[in-house]
Structures are given as C-alpha cells and as structure tokens.
Design goal:
single chain; about 325 residues; 7-stranded mixed sheet; 4-stranded antiparallel sheet; globular; binds (3R)-3-hydroxy-3-methyl-5-(phosphonooxy)pentanoic acid
C-alpha cells in the first residue's frame, strides 16, 4: 500500500494576469491537504476509484470519459508504463474546501500521481508530477496558466511565468497570512472566460492592467527575497485595486477585505479567480487574532492562519513527513 499527500495553495499576487504571460506568486497552504492511497484490489476487475468526499465510487472502465479522476489515473498509469490495467484500489480524501481557490482538484491530482508512482516503485521528478496534473487542470479550468499545479507539485513558494521554469522563492523573513473563504462558490473556468472576453473587447486597457499587476508581482518577489515583508501589505492593496479594475472582485470579497484592513491587516486582496472564493490578508503575530475574529464576524466560511516560512526546508510528501 502507498499513501501520498499534496497541500492546498494560495495565489499571493498576479492571478488573471498570469494567464496572459505576466508573473505571479503562489504559496503552498499546508493546513489543508489531499491524500491518495493505492492498495492491491481483490476483485480482478481493474482499477477501482473511491472518493468518499465527492460521493464518487466506480471502476475506471465504467467512469465517465473526461472525468478528472479518470484522466489523472489513466494518464499516470500510461506515463509510468503500466501496460495491463492493474488490479488496484485508488482512494482519495481531502480536507481542502472545493471550488474556492485553494487548489482542491489539483491537490487531488498531485496526490494520486505520487501515490501511484510510489506504489509501482518509480520516482517521479516534480516537473513530471506537475505536468501530469496540468493536463487535468485543462479539464477543470479550460485555459489554465499552470501556476496551481506548479506550486502544489513543488510545495514551495513560487514565482511563476507561464511557459518558463518556475523560480522557487526563498523568503529572507517569515510572514503570516490569513486566508478566508467568502463561502461563495466561484468556478475558475467561468471567471477566466469572462476576463478573456473583456480583454478581447478592449485589449489595450486590459493589457495595461495586466502589465501593472505583473509589476506588482515583480516588486513582491524582491520584497520576499530581501525580507522587506512590510512592503507586501501595500503591494497586496495595489494588486486588489487592479483586480477590481479587471472586474473580478465581489461584494462578499470586499466585505472581508475591508474587515481585515479595519482590524489591522497591512494588506488584503482576493486570491484566485475571484467573484467569490478566498481572500488573503497580511498579518503579524499581534494583529492575527484580531483579524481572524473580524473575518469570522463578517461571515467568513473558513479561516486559515498560515506562515510562509523563511529559508527552505525539505518536504517529503510521499509519507507525509
Ligand atoms: O481559482 P484558482 O485559485 O484556481 O486560481 C485561478 C488563477 C487564475 O490566474 C485566475 C487562472 C490561472 O490559470 O492562473
């Protein structure tokens, strides 16, 4: 039997603009995670898929074509060159809330790839894990930038530009974030498609907004790498102004952002596709409890307090250590 994990994620800077080739920054969120277990089957009927969280159970051969779980298992078995369909049970569990910008679908894919590779005794590089998850991202999101699969497969803060090798960020100083969920489910595919049609109607206006967002991501990278974490708050606020102009904020997001800022966060913005899902706020040891309380009082559905640690530590996701 093999078990593997993958964390959630949050986009700190650059969402949407990243789809158009501008840089973005994302970090893993380890307080939530997906888990995949692979074990020998007993029926001789091939791969049995079980995802109790999603109320989903069936044999691979009977699963609907185009289903993300079917796709990730089939693509991974083919990548691992497992020729005849093996008699195994693949079970997925996850504590990551679905469709709110924490990367739930991607984390499930990454955990499955890792568990299958380990079960068949093959070590896969992170690039390969990320690439396999990216193929399935296309089913979830249509035209994904690739940032979600990258940050989840690498499990490190990343500075990401579509089509380029990701840069692993090594923060010179730790900083604390609060991630809060509006409780409004917002499918990324629809928001990304809407932004695309607006960009097609007014390419000049939108390209210039994306350029400015890219500059914010670049400045944030410098701040993270040089330990000037105080600069991150104003950069988050600037990024949020630009996301408003792109048209992806919402009253629920604005309410939580305002509550966080009023309670002492030095910056706050939506995170992910927007129109719902999550927001993030930059806090300190001192402000975190107040901001967390204010977010809950303003109706946040889930609140996660997390730290982006300085330096680098090695992660072993296959055994969860
Ligand atoms: O909704 P999420 O957290 O999966 O983030 C989507 C981020 C976008 O930039 C809007 C799309 C993408 O593919 O990068």
């Amino acid at each position: 039997m093999s078990t593997a994990y993958a964390p959630g994620k949050s986009i700190l800077f650059g969402e949407h603009a990243v789809v158009y080739g501008r840089p973005a920054i994302a970090v893993p969120i380890r307080q939530v995670r997906a888990q995949a277990t692979v074990q020998a089957g007993k029926t001789g009927k091939g791969v049995f898929l079980s995802a109790p969280n999603m109320n989903w159970e069936c044999y691979l051969t009977e699963s609907p074509k185009g289903h993300p779980l079917r796709a990730i298992v089939m693509n991974t078995l083919s990548y691992l060159r497992v020729s005849a369909e093996p008699d195994i049970i693949v079970r997925v569990d996850s504590t990551i809330p679905i469709a709110c910008g924490l990367g739930s679908g991607t984390a499930v894919s990454v955990a499955i790839v890792r568990a299958l590779a380990e079960y068949f005794g093959i070590q896969l590089p992170r690039e390969a894990v990320s690439e396999l998850a990216f193929e399935v991202e296309k089913i979830h999101h249509g035209t994904p930038s690739g940032i979600d699969n990258t940050v989840i497969a690498y499990e490190r803060p990343v500075y990401f530009v579509k089509g380029q090798t990701p840069v692993i960020l090594i923060p010179a100083r730790s900083f604390q974030l609060i991630v809060a969920d509006t409780g409004v489910c917002s499918p990324t595919r629809a928001v990304v498609a809407d932004v695309r049609s607006k960009w097609e109607c007014d390419p000049r206006q939108y390209s210039s907004l994306f350029d400015e967002i890219g500059e914010v991501s670049w400045a944030a990278r410098q701040s993270i790498e040089s330990g000037r974490t105080n600069d991150l708050g104003p950069l988050m606020n600037r990024n949020q102004e630009l996301l408003r102009a792109v048209g992806v904020s919402s009253p629920e997001l604005e309410r939580l952002i305002e509550a966080a800022l009023q309670a002492g966060a030095s910056g706050a913005k939506l995170s992910g596709a927007g129109r719902g899902g999550n927001m993030i706020a930059l806090v300190t040891e001192e402000t975190a409890p107040r901001v967390e309380k204010a977010l809950r009082a303003s109706g946040a559905a889930h609140v996660i307090v997390t730290e982006v640690a300085s330096g680098t530590t090695d992660i072993h996701s296959a055994d969860g250590t």
